[in-house]
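This section describes the prediction task in plain terms. A model, or a person checking by hand, is given the sequence of a single protein chain and must write out its three-dimensional structure as a string of tokens. No templates, partner chains or ligands are provided. The sample shown here is typical of the held-out split.
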Amino acid sequence: MKTILFLLIPCFFVANFAYAQEKERTNSLYGEFIGNGLIYSVGYEKVLIHTDKDWLAAKVGICLFPRSAGNAHTLFKSLPIELVSRGIHRNIELGLGITAFSQIVWNVISPTENIVAAEESLAYAVISRIGYHSTPGKRGMYWNGAIMPRLFDSTRDKNFALLFGIGVGKSF
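The expected answer:
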């Protein structure tokens, strides 16, 4: 009887550890309000390196929206790219990213003759990130919130600005 118990006890521990391990989610698809897209963005996050204490993830997103001011109409396209590192708790994010955007500006030169001039420009902004990230439970809900100081903007004289972002999505 002792021999049988001696053989069964290690089997219980092995089975317990095998079923207790939950697969880490390494992909996330989310929508972010303000954030790196400067107004809104739809983003994808991929965990590149994962250890017990550290994560290194890459984020990429896209934003597309029209805006107008006076006679000029602008189509604004944004592509934020960011590297994020998470520490021991996996909830605190520190990151650095760049948001490249192009603008197509249509200036109405003569409204009576329908003469329009179009001009496209490429610009970028360097944005850092200090935030909180969570994927609670087994359902894979993803959410984050961050304060993002803009360190440089190639289109403005005043570089520094304090932005924030809130994102919600799904991890898989």
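For orientation: The chain has one helix and eight strands.
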